[in-house]
Design brief:
Layout: H1 5-15, H2 20-27, H3 31-38, H4 49-56, H5 60-63, H6 73-86, H7 92-109, H8 114-127, H9 135-158, H10 162-178, H11 182-189, H12 202-213, H13 215-247, H14 250-267, H15 278-294, H16 298-323, H17 326-329, H18 334-342, H19 345-372
Helix pairs in contact: 2-3, 7-8, 7-9, 8-9, 8-10, 9-10, 10-11, 12-13, 13-14, 13-15, 14-15, 15-16, 15-19, 16-19
Length: 375
């Protein structure tokens, strides 16, 4: 792609009557650097793109000579599909690293696209969970982490999209937490909205829809609100079970997991909520099976595995109904439909194998063999 960014910088600078020295001073670079950019002898660092656009009062698309539609939802969806294809649940560290490297290329191709920058920050947060288990990840981590922090700060400082800003704060909190920089982690966490106020958008949006569009409008917004609330509650269950598996007595961890699943089952009595429970259900079962194996409860672990198989089969049958009914499909956005479409028998087997692989890694061959013999 041939980007005439230099001439665009020059044209925008002259349009507002700014000298190279004045622009350089505001950016914190030398006038020679600006001169090199404008003469096409060099390109500004990616971290300069948004500040340049802001100072010159132009969009980043204008700065790069690109039409706004160059960055559409289809491009992001294609990137997400590529990421899904690259992820291997049996090689989590390695495939997470490959995804970050792939996204770095996408960032370089579209340095002003905050959606792609945010994906990079989020996948770096995911990679931070596996760094210590892979020498290759450890070697690449400082560079990837520093880029993620730089991109995250760009989003926070210059994006006008509040959802992207929240996603960046959330991901950066995970990065700093895994780096044991708890002060920085808390600074990002403190910016995120909290349910403690009980004054969230969702608390009133359905009533606004009722006033504007009547009962049908309220029902549509309520369904979306409940899906979001269900995801938030389920995420809390999973985060807790991840630590309860090894840090609480077996009976206490299992009791919490059973309670979590009971609530998820209640959610799923409304079929619209199944998509908000599916992946969380797998994780709860995985951690419960782990707690059982850690306590030597092999038959209990096997029974849980068979329960999970039945749940996954139920999810698959429900999704076949959704995909065969245009009205049902319209209930979901493109991102959720992507996951529904991907929920095939092959996908189910892959996820089951990932769970078994994880259990084997946690407890070793001898324990796993006794468990596997009961399946």
């Amino acid at each position: 792609m041939n980007i005439s960014i230099g001439s665009n910088i020059k044209a925008a600078r002259k349009k507002i009557g700014m000298t190279q020295e004045e622009l350089a001073s505001q950016l914190g670079v030398t006038a020679q650097a600006v001169s090199r950019w404008e003469s096409e002898a060099g390109l500004p660092d990616i971290s300069m793109v948004v500040p340049l656009a802001t100072i010159l009062s132009v969009s980043t698309d204008t700065l790069f000579g690109l039409a706004a539609h160059s960055y559409d939802s289809l491009q992001i969806l294609n990137i997400k599909n590529n990421m899904d294809a690259m992820f291997d649940g049996l090689r989590k560290a390695e495939s997470s690293l490959e995804i970050c490297q792939y996204l770095q290329t996408e960032v370089l191709n579209a340095p002003a696209n905050y959606d792609i920058l945010c994906l990079y920050v989020e996948r770096t947060a995911n990679l931070s969970r596996y760094v210590r288990s892979s020498k290759e990840c450890q070697e690449q981590w400082p560079h990837i982490k520093n880029n993620a922090i730089k991109y995250g700060l760009q989003i926070i400082r210059f994006s006008s999209d509040s959802a992207l800003i929240e996603r960046a704060h959330f991901a950066m909190a995970w990065i700093y937490m895994h780096e044991k920089d708890y002060v920085s982690a808390r600074e990002h966490i403190d910016t995120l909205p909290s349910v403690s106020s009980n004054r969230l958008q969702e608390s009133i949006l359905a009533q606004l829809a009722l006033c504007e569009k009547g009962i049908d409008g309220e029902q549509e917004v309520l369904r979306k609100n409940l899906m979001n609330f269900v995801c938030a509650i389920n995420k809390e269950f999973v985060y807790a079970m991840e630590s309860f598996r090894t840090r609480l007595p077996y009976e206490e961890a299992l009791s919490f997991g059973e309670w979590s699943l009971h609530i998820m089952d209640a959610f799923c009595e409304n079929p619209d909520m199944i998509s908000s429970c599916r992946g969380f259900t797998r994780d709860i079962y995985k951690y419960m099976m782990g707690a059982c194996l850690g306590a030597g409860k092999y038959e209990d672990a096997a029974n849980l595995y068979h329960e999970l198989e039945a749940k996954m089969d139920m999810h698959f049958k429900h999704y076949q109904i959704v995909l065969s009914d245009e009205f049902e499909m319209q209930k979901y956005d493109a991102n959720i439909l992507r996951y529904i479409t991907a929920y095939t028998p092959e996908f189910i087997e892959t996820k089951k194998n990932e769970i078994l692989h994880q259990l084997r890694e946690w407890y070793g061959e001898e324990v796993f063999a006794r468990f596997e013999s009961l399946l």
